[in-house]
Amino acid sequence: MCDNENFARKLRQILTLSIGNVVKPLQDNLEDIMTIRNLKLCPVRPDKSNRALRIEEINNGFKESGSEEENSGEQPRASVEAGPSQIRETPAQSTDNDDMIPIGKGHAKVLSKVLTSIKWMSYTKATRTLLEAIFPRRVLATHSLSGKQSPAFMDRPAKKILNPKLVDDIVNTVSTKCVVSKNLVRKCITVKCADEAKTCRQQKRALNDKIPL
Amino acid sequence: MCDNENFARKLRQILTLSIGNVVKPLQDNLEDIMTIRNLKLCPVRPDKSNRALRIEEINNGFKESGSEEENSGEQPRASVEAGPSQIRETPAQSTDNDDMIPIGKGHAKVLSKVLTSIKWMSYTKATRTLLEAIFPRRVLATHSLSGKQSPAFMDRPAKKILNPKLVDDIVNTVSTKCVVSKNLVRKCITVKCADEAKTCRQQKRALNDKIPL
DNA sequence: GTTCCAATTGGAA
DNA sequence: GTTCCAATTGGAA
């Protein structure tokens, strides 16, 4: 993971220092490579026999779900809302429950058609799409990344913390797929929660304006 | 500029999708390439005859200073503290005034030894170093990127705006050299100003504790 | 309707 | 002593 980041960082520097000569030849092949890779990632049919392979490819070297760290004793500092209450229920129209693909360590599962629709060019879009796929809007609006108070608003109550295992699955996936630092992905999550909270607030306000108490 | 960003973004995706096979061979040559490039960037002596070449290389294709856009009519929305008052004075111990190297469009100038000391691996460090090299601490503490009020603290007065031309020179330089989006660089500037303001505040507080009025 | 911008904060790293 | 973390906000894009 860390090696990936260092490698990407070095490559970025090389790119800048040697635009036009060293890496130019690679550019010509980019489109072909991407096309091929995308084809491989395209879902075919919900066929269990090659499901494992597809997951392997999508998660790109992640451990499979149910690893020994499932029950590791690590406790998050803030109180965690345990259990599945934070997890988005499978949509009613989906009859095939197996169509959920685990990401990261496998705590989080995402509908395969959502996962394959994600364009990994934008780590912000990818993060927000995964968040919406994994958490109900209500949870996003009422929880935050750390579960801590805003240092700038010490009088306000803190929101609850987003399930850290699910968050980690998202962070690791986006960070790896988009080769950006985990911090940037975490910032996206903070912003997304703030945006959902604002939307929620605005809807309540609009409702109050319509039907004033 | 935009092409660079798109290219880097594509490369990042390729990296993720094809770790270990497509780009692996390139990795072996990274160290050599970087060494060679670093050697080229190393300052030799303040010798005017090859100064231009070094600047050309460092700025990587930027226009030279004194371009026709020097007097373009673009006016920033917030009030700008015009003139050199925002610009860091050349340190007293420097006898060679020519040792200032322009970056970006050339509004901002940086001591050559500072410029060559910057490690472009970290865009945050690079941005902060350039800020300290170009603006006095006092300006960083009392100005902000936009010159606008905080939306979260509408009662507080807005700080003044950092000279946008100097900011642009920094943003363009770091964005290009580190192949990160301009927005990320701008975020760094916001944070740096906030940090300087905090330091300033703390120093005043410490002084008041010592010599209470 | 969503996403991004950027100013502010106290404490942690 | 400096840099980073992340929560909050209203408006702009």
UniProtKB/TrEMBL annotation, chains A, B:
GO terms for cellular component: nucleus. It is found in: Nucleus. Residues 104-200 form the BEN domain. Residues 59-101 are annotated as: Disordered. Keywords: Nucleus, Repressor, Transcription, Transcription regulation. PROSITE patterns: BEN. GO terms for molecular function: DNA binding; transcription corepressor activity. Coiled coil: none annotated. Pfam families: BEN. One of its GO terms (biological process) is positive regulation of neuron differentiation. Its main location: nucleus. This is BEN domain-containing protein. It comes from Mythimna separata.
